[in-house]
Specification:
single chain, alpha/beta, Rossmann fold, eight-stranded mixed β-sheet
């Protein structure tokens, strides 16, 4: 199977390298910047281009991994020659591809990615959608080289999954960043929270997160919460965030 990657960001980097390790033939990388295209192509040992007009037309699968906003702008500039084209976006419907090829689908790994951090795809859910049974089988085969958890997921389901992932990953990571900032005010490193973070995640996987909730908001401990808000008086955005989250925790406990 000959695969072209359109995009060279975090997700494209990790998927392409992992597929290469599974002996999938990555034949070209496209990126709008020549630097990022050449860097990823060097790792893959393949050709690269920054010109959509020079993307090869005889690959078997084109994996488009660019920002959601770039999809509609970039896709019409590429001749896919009716080959199988898939995107990797969580919140974009599959049908956005139907104008550029008669064979299209989605290849969406449910994980957070960074170029510098190695990822083992084996247990990552890979969400697949395709416009035909034949294309679905092709994508299942490709996904199965990476993961033991391949799922057929519709565009509507994927949008809901992506929304939940923003809460479970992006927002949670932002809370880690806030915690780090709060600790830094008194010269305390974030690693003091590592055991707490580990147990919080483990507990959320073991029992219903609503049942796992603890803390002053759940207890409606107004004295503690007022003290915390005073400590955040120099940071009005964090003060508002603390109040909103505390109210949400209390409301959830009453559902």
């Amino acid at each position: 199977m000959r695969v072209v990657f359109i995009g060279a960001g975090n997700l494209a980097t990790r998927i392409s390298i992992s597929l290469k390790e599974k002996n999938i033939d990555i034949v070209q990388v496209f990126s709008r910047t020549e630097k990022s295209a050449s860097e990823l192509a060097h790792k893959l040992g393949c050709n690269y281009t920054a010109d959509p007009a020079t993307i090869i037309e005889d690959a078997d699968v084109y994996i488009v991994s660019v920002s959601d906003s770039a999809l509609s702008e970039l896709l019409p500039k590429i001749n896919f020659n009716n080959k199988l084209v898939v995107h990797t976006a969580g919140s974009v419907p599959m049908d956005i591809l139907k104008e550029v090829s008669s064979n299209y689908g989605v290849f969406y790994p449910l994980q957070t990615f960074s170029k510098q951090r190695l990822i083992d795809f084996k247990s990552i859910p890979l969400c697949i959608e395709a416009n035909s049974i034949e294309n679905e089988k092709t994508l299942i085969g490709l996904a199965s080289t990476l993961s033991d958890d391949v799922r057929i997921i519709s565009s509507e389901q994927r949008k809901q999954i992506h929304l939940s992932a923003v809460f479970a990953s992006n927002f949670v990571n932002h809370m880690f960043a806030v915690a780090s900032k709060v600790l830094a005010q008194k010269g305390v490193p974030l690693d003091i929270l590592y055991p707490l973070i580990d147990e919080t995640v483990s507990k959320a996987k073991a029992i219903d997160p609503i049942l796992a909730q603890t803390g002053p908001a759940l207890r409606n401990d107004r004295n503690t919460m007022q003290e915390h808000l005073k400590m955040l008086s120099d940071y009005p955005e964090l003060k508002d965030l603390y109040s909103i989250l505390s109210k949400s925790i209390l409301n959830f406990s009453n559902l």
